[in-house]
Write a structure and sequence with these properties.
With 307 residues, this protein is of the alpha/beta class. The chain has one domain: 3-Layer(aba) Sandwich (Rossmann fold), CATH 3.40.50.1820. Helices cover 29% and strands 19% of the residues. It has a 9-stranded mixed sheet, with helices on both faces. Strand 1 and strand 2 form a beta hairpin. Helix 6 packs across helix 7. The longest helix is centred in the middle third of the chain and has 18 residues.
Length: 307
């Protein structure tokens, strides 16, 4: 493949769709049913279940602010773990990865669902996507996660009467899902992607890392390694989306070096809507970075305060 072709973002969009795979035909998600409610200080957390187009039961938590200040809802996308959506509300997992309740305290309505194979959807065989590929050989693990997000946005719009446009915030895998989602669906208007830059090293494709028991992307007919072109993917996402990409110099999850100067230049060439922040630290989401991220969702400006 001539890499010059990739600089045509319409062509590159088609390559991204091929890498994500072919979404099977399915019914729209069924309306959610409330199954519980709890409070954290002044924030109400409402728990729901809904049935997606594949007949799966999906858990959903909605954080209701005491007084809503912002019209666009926020989708909180969790990292790779067993805790699922509970972690983003501080109910389980790493307290440093709580951003759902904090956003609700600022007046946002926050939606979080368990991603594929996590939380209440975790199968007996941990992180085993094998049955997915047996049933849908032309799809992908990431494609399934993106479909879950699209089902969630449909549910938010039709059942919760939210506007079409949404904000998103995610850490690690959640950040990766956020910029892929913004690249393929223009309903994301502003996104925070924390510790989510992942670029291939020679001879190694992080999308097939043994961290998962099956590949992350569809590689049946993939003529290039998408992980080598994350800068283009992020540029594609930023056509319709204001995006802040937060990288960490000591990040060792999968293979996540900070962007090269060439990658940074390509991102800036294609889009002025990407803000790139490089932190001198490990794979994390410290409080001062989260605070700046919340301000970005509200204003489009990322201004990192001192710790």
């Amino acid at each position: 493949m001539n890499d010059a072709n990739l600089l045509d973002l319409n062509y590159f969009r088609e390559q991204v769709k091929r890498a994500v795979g072919e979404t099977p035909q399915m019914a729209p998600p069924q309306p959610p049913a409330q199954i519980g409610e709890t409070r954290i200080e002044e924030i109400t957390l409402r728990e729901y279940h809904y049935i997606n187009g594949l007949g799966e039961t999906v858990g959903l938590t909605v954080a209701e602010p005491p007084q809503r200040r912002w019209s666009q809802p926020v989708i909180a996308i969790h990292q790779t773990n067993d805790c699922g959506r509970k972690e983003v509300f501080g109910l389980d997992g790493d307290p440093e990865l709580e951003y759902g309740v904090s956003l609700a305290k600022r007046g946002h309505r926050v939606f979080a669902t368990d991603m594929f194979l996590t939380g209440d959807r975790s199968p007996d065989r941990h992180w085993d996507a094998g049955p997915l590929y047996e049933a849908y050989p032309n799809w992908s693990m990431l494609g399934k996660m993106l479909q879950d997000m699209e089902d969630l946005m449909d549910t938010m719009h039709h059942a919760f009467h939210e506007p079409e446009k949404n904000h998103a915030i995610g850490h690690s895998m959640g950040g990766i899902v956020a910029y892929f989602l913004a690249a393929v669906d223009n309903r994301i208007s502003r996104a925070v992607c924390n510790a989510a830059y992942s670029q291939a090293v020679p001879g190694k494709d992080p999308w097939t890392a043994p961290h998962y028991t099956a590949r992350f992307l569809n590689d049946q007919d993939r003529s290039f390694c998408l992980a080598k072109h994350i800068d283009l993917l992020i540029s594609l996402a930023a056509i319709h989306c204001d995006l802040v990409l937060i990288c960490y110099a000591q990040d060792q999850i999968i293979e996540a070096p900070i962007p090269t100067p060439q990658a940074i230049n390509r991102m800036r060439t294609f889009s002025k809507r990407v803000q790139l922040v490089i932190q001198d630290g490990p794979h994390a989401f410290p409080q001062h970075v989260r605070e700046a991220s919340f301000a970005f969702l509200e204003s489009g400006l990322y201004d990192l305060p001192s710790e």
